[in-house]
Specification:
Elements (H helix, E strand, L loop, with lengths): L1 E13 L4 E3 L2 E3 L4 E2 L7 H13 L5 H4 L13 H13 L3 E10 L9 H12 L6 E6 L5 H4 L3 E11 L3
Helix pairs in contact: 1-3, 3-4
The structure holds magnesium ion.
Magnesium ion binds next to strand 1 and helix 1.
Length: 159
């Protein structure tokens, strides 16, 4: 039976940090602040996958109070989500996600993001959708104070 999950994440943009989205380092004047590499796209996808199997969110598996996860690449969170699905004999059907960022331009990096997300999950790039939009200059995203991502995932689980 196919189960769906939803995920959302947001991080502040700050000076002095590298910007990682979908496992890709994107040249920019600011980066996302957080305990890990703060890859909001991978975090949203992770929560969508965990939600599809009825699990708790990414913070339950990787508390931001634990020094082991400081600065780690977020692909390890996706690898854990894939492992949780595999232990239930589940299969990822597809993931679809949207990055909401006023700047920088995300589109040129999407093909590589799909590759990196697919590799971390052990699936084909064809199963991964990633889009990007601006926030039309409105609100905190429009003011470039942060970047958000939302995702849905479907997982086929045995009944
Ligand atoms: Mg996060």
């Amino acid at each position: 039976m196919v189960h769906v999950g939803i995920g959302y994440d947001v991080h502040q943009l700050v000076a002095g940090r590298a910007l990682f989205l979908g496992g890709v380092e994107i040249p920019h004047t600011k980066g996302l602040d957080g305990h890990s590499d703060a890859d909001a796209l991978m975090h949203a996808i992770c929560d969508a996958l965990l939600g599809a199997i009825g699990e708790e969110d990414i913070g339950h598996f990787f508390p931001n109070t634990d020094p082991r996860w400081r600065g780690v690449p977020s692909k390890i969170f996706l690898e854990e989500a894939a492992r949780q699905i595999a232990t239930r004999s589940g299969r990822i059907v597809n993931v679809d996600a949207t990055v909401i960022a006023q700047a920088p331009k995300i589109y040129p990096h999407i093909a590589l993001m799909k590759q990196r997300v697919a590799a971390a999950l052990g699936v084909s790039e064809k199963q991964i959708g990633i889009k990007a939009t601006t926030n039309e200059l409105m609100g905190f995203i429009g003011r470039e104070e942060g970047i958000a991502a939302m995702a849905v995932a479907s997982v086929d689980l045995p009944e």
